[in-house]
Amino acid sequence: MSLEFKEIYVSHYSKLKRFAKEYVVADEDAENIVQDVFTHLLENWTLLSTYQNIFSYLFLITKNKCTDFLRHKMVVQKAADEIAEEYYLSLKASFDSLDSFNQHSFSQEDIEEIVQKALNTLPERCREIFIKNKIEGKKQKEIAEELNISVNTIESQMAIAYKKLRIELKDLFPLFLFLFC
Question: Which domain range does residue 166 map to?
């Protein structure tokens, strides 16, 4: 490291750090930015002779690095805010679902009637497969052999049943989860 670089470093480091700290706030971030500025200066030392005013050059680099830093922080914060918003909406949906569910008091007969109506909305073969699997407790392979169809067909029919029942029981989603998942 040349003597000239050390002199520039010593005479300008604190000013540049103070400037950076005004914008990036955290002392550590300001230090990192100014260290990056001096690393850049050292890497481009041969170009330095083209600049008349070294302080202006360092100030410009510091400003640009602060801008990049803040731009990055804004992107990160925006992503965090979006994740937090999605999480909040998920919590709210769960809360609203449970709250709605609590407002209904169901007897066993009511639940059986609701489930039967929902099951009756399924296509016949789909309903048969779903009942064998979820109510009778049979394994998919066992159902496939019994009905002489493939396990893939069982899986696709179960997916159809879940989708339709989820829609049919959307206001009673906790009940759906409790009974069928």
Answer: 106-180
